[in-house]
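Lab meeting, item 3. Inverse folding demo.
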């Protein structure tokens, strides 16, 4: 049952919400803006309503996967299912393994695992984006902060390890953004 739950979680994570929103409007979101299927690119190119739907859908994928794992097997399986959803969002089978940068799906996963940590990271994201106007910088800082929140909230070691793995994936997926931030060419929000 555990293997099936992880596979289902990967497939849930692979549902390309942003891509489907674009297709519903006759747009391939991968051909616009940053080319990413995630919330920020959807927001910038399809508007705030579509962006909010993408955020909710992508976060929902992560939350559903964690809840599935918890229901079927407890903490170990909820972590595995959460990671599978993140992998599905990042490398979706339905889009040739080219997906999003995991921030919204990761938010949903952490809301399911440790809501307080997710809300602390979200608050930090808001502060960084408000101060510097870079969504990518806020996303990176929020992801990298997650292991700290796990420590401060005295979560089990496996949650800390999980948060470290997710932070590494998030930074990896943001390498092009990091290069643009360092070069001063990253897009700011208005």
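The presenter then showed the designed sequence:
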């Amino acid at each position: 049952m555990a293997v099936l739950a992880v596979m289902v979680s990967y497939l849930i994570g692979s549902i390309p919400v942003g891509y489907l929103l674009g297709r519903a409007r006759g747009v391939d979101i991968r051909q616009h803006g940053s080319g990413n299927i995630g919330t920020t690119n959807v927001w910038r190119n399809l508007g705030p309503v579509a962006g909010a739907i993408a955020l909710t859908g992508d976060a929902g994928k992560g939350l559903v996967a964690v809840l599935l794992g918890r229901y079927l097997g407890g903490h170990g399986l909820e972590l595995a299912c959460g990671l599978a959803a993140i992998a599905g969002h990042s490398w979706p089978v339905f889009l040739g393994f080219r997906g999003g940068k995991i921030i919204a799906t990761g938010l949903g996963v952490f809301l399911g695992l440790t809501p307080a940590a997710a809300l602390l990271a979200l608050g930090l994201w808001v502060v960084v984006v408000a101060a510097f106007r870079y969504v990518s910088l806020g996303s990176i800082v929020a992801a990298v902060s997650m292991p700290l929140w796990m420590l401060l909230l005295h979560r089990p070691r496996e949650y800390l390890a999980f948060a470290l793995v997710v932070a590494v994936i998030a930074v990896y997926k943001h390498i092009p953004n990091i290069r643009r931030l360092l070069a001063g060419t990253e897009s700011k929000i208005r």
